[in-house]
Amino acid sequence: MATTPSNLPRDDPSLPSVTCAETTSTCTGSCNDERARSSNIIAQSDGGGNDEPMNDIGKDQKQERPTPIHETCTKAEGQHQPQNPLPQQQQQNKPRRVYRRRRRRNKHSEDPNTIPESISQNVALQLAIQSSLPQDYEFEIMKTVHRIHLSKAKHVALQMPEGLLMYACTIADILKKFSVDGLLETVSILGDVTYGACCIDDLGAKALGADLLIHYGHSCLVPLNATAIPCLYIFVEIRVDVQHLVDCFCETCPVGTRVHVMGTVQFRPAVAAAARLLNERERIATVPQAKPLSPGEVLGCTAPANLGGIDGAEAGDTNANCANSTNCCSGSGDCGEGTETDGGAVADGDTDRMSVPARNVHVMLFIADGRFHLEAAMIANPSLRALRYDPYAKSLTDERYETEKMKSIRQNAIQRAMDPSVKVYGIILGTLGRQGNPAILGHVRSLLRRRGKRCFVLLLSEIFPKKLDMFSKRVDVWVQIACPRLSVDWGHFFTKPVLSVYELNVALGEEKWRDIYPMDFYTVNSGRGSNYHENNRSRQIRNE
Asked: pTM of this prediction?
């Protein structure tokens, strides 16, 4: 609604044809700017009562009280001219008030975190899941169907580790049959080996023309904003008999034992539940975390370190030179106490552990069906006793790792790389998924060139001794940018030394040898050769 100045008659023909106090339909862009400034002027004049002249036109005019200030647009110039602006100094001193308009939510938009009833209450879909897939495995089929619908994906790629590939065709059929409005046309299964979350093959899925990649069995190690196409991670959480796990541990370790509960990402709910029940039974349980991983999650190359601290060291080095596992608790549930190796709580020769007060004993309780991930935790915490619960065999075993022997082998490989006769380095960049980081490659290449070493880059998806033996006459030392566990576990099987980036830094004097071998390849604020170092997170080669 347009308004007119109060000191002019409403029928005065001298009034402008359009007034702009509120309506600015014929004003130019400058009118809008002036109106915004005049709103500040009104706020000051209403409370200030300033009777001084405001401009040249009003010098001879006296005002008994402040009157509302109105703005008009002249016909001739079409520009906005405020009648009584405040002095510029007062305008600058006026604090500016910012108003932000709230974004209205579209009532018809779908929440990506809420599965609609048309999917969650689909009886045919529920029946297909129950009859075709194992009940203890959570494949999150309904969530996946909803995500495909929101993404408008017509072509979906499925990637999963070897142990889950047997369900790939079944999942593909279900997704295609129950896609909303028959949107999904093609489902591709990526059959290359998938060792871990670092092997996510978003580049291969993009080359296939997929609109969405669904990765099963691993956590979000590669950030979603770093993948070539949209990705959905399905952890495939597995249900575990947590009560039996806790009973076995309580029969094995006395009251007051400090236990650090960990496992692979599939058993994340079981880790949290076990820690809660152990605390209720007077075992002091914690769930450690190596960020950015989930609490309690351990990878083959990344694990929480320094668990137990000094107290853990008081319990003695539990990593005796024995590579075998000793059965502590069988699936029958008879978890007896004693020193026998058959179903006993403590292995023969380990009675000295029980002499340590329970309050000083730190123990790792690891939930997994294999040792690979557990070994990372044992390497990072060599002073802690390690117990592994196998949810399939329902057994609790006492695990050992030859830490000192491993470190001796790796130090020997570093010494060979420090020999003055070493001239040529081969740099292996892993191409299996996202294992190889180009930023680390740039660091290694620059480091070798500064030291006057010749080097070349070799791309490999998997590294085998016979493959590298083909270059044995030309290459003196290999540096692999793929998986650090490859050097730790299999480095001694190669003819020439195969170093990790950490070991190369030690060999060239860039880093000191650590008494505890680092397992921090994906830990935030970790070493120069790790993926989450500040210079490596961009995954871009830098000139150093």
From this structure: 0.71
